[in-house]
């Protein structure tokens, strides 16, 4: 196997092991390969190994890769900070956006999503650790923002996403993931049909799975160190 193939299988095994350890249903956790800064050839190699969902942080880089990989059935996720002036282009070229944290972005994505495309899948980014340097809606504002999606026919709110502050031990790593899950459970109990918790990366995917992650975002452990 190639290096990417070996690393990809190692990550998949970690996910399977965590599903068993934390009594999650087999296959209930999906893998998003974070491919920012990686050449299109690396994505093609991972695609050949069965990986279908890829996450990009930068619009121009994503569009260049899409042109080079137009012959593949990749599911494209935009996971980076989203600026208002990029919403038109993003709305027309990806399947998911994980970084919506304010109403203005949602309104613009809805208005720019082409009518001939399926509704754009959205995760609200939550600043779960209340970090001044991180984007995301405050936990207290999640319900109000989520309620606005009833008026956006070209968007489909799927769930929540977070990037918690680093923590040294397992209980501390699990705490913010638990908080995000509890936030989502409140929304579901209020009648929202949500199915996605986008949380957990290379260093903490097991803790995220323990607390209910349905999608983990892994880059370095698949592709190696960033270029």
Question: What labels describe this entry?
Answer:
TIM Barrel, single chain, 227 residues
| Separation of the first and last Cα atoms | 22 Å
Mean of all residue-level pLDDT scores? 96
CATH class: Alpha Beta
Please give the order of strands in the largest beta sheet.
7-6-5-4-3-2-1-8
The CATH superfamily name is Alanine racemase
Approximate helicity band = 40-55%
Radius of gyration: 17 Å
Itemize the secondary structure elements and their pairings.
Elements: H1 3-21, E1 30-34, H2 40-48, E2 53-56, H3 59-68, E3 75-78, H4 87-93, E4 96-100, H5 103-112, E5 120-126, H6 142-147, E6 155-162, H7 170-189, E7 196-198, H8 205-210, E8 215-218, H9 220-223
Parallel strand pairs: 1-2, 1-8, 2-3, 3-4, 4-5, 5-6, 6-7
Helix pairs in contact: 4-5
Question: How would you describe what is shown here?
Answer:
There is one protein chain. This protein is of the alpha/beta class and 227 residues long. It has a single domain, classed as Alanine racemase (TIM Barrel). It has nine helices and eight strands. It has an eight-stranded parallel beta sheet. Helix 6 links the parallel strand 5 and strand 6. Helix 4 crosses helix 5.
């Amino acid at each position: 196997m190639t290096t990417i193939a070996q690393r990809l299988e190692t990550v998949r095994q970690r996910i399977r092991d965590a599903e068993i350890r934390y009594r999650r249903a087999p296959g209930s956790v999906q893998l998003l390969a974070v491919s920012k800064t990686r050449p299109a050839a690396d994505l093609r190699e991972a695609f050949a190994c069965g990986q279908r969902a890829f996450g990009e942080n930068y619009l121009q880089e994503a569009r260049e890769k899409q042109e080079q990989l137009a012959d593949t059935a990749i599911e494209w996720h935009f996971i980076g900070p989203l600026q208002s002036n990029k919403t038109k282009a993003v709305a027309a070229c990806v399947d998911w956006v994980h970084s919506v944290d304010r109403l203005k972005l949602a309104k613009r994505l809805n208005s720019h999503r082409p009518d001939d495309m399926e509704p754009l899948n959205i995760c609200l980014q939550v600043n779960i650790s209340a970090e001044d340097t991180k984007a995301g809606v405050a936990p207290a504002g999640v319900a109000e923002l989520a309620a606005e999606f009833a008026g956006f026919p070209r968007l489909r709110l799927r769930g929540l996403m977070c990037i918690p502050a680093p923590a040294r031990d397992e209980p501390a790593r699990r705490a913010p993931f638990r908080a995000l899950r509890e936030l989502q459970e409140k929304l579901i109990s209020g009648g929202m049909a949500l199915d996605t918790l986008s949380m957990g990366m290379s260093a903490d995917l097991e803790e995220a799975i323990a607390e209910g992650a349905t999608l983990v975002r892994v880059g370095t452990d698949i592709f190696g160190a960033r270029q």
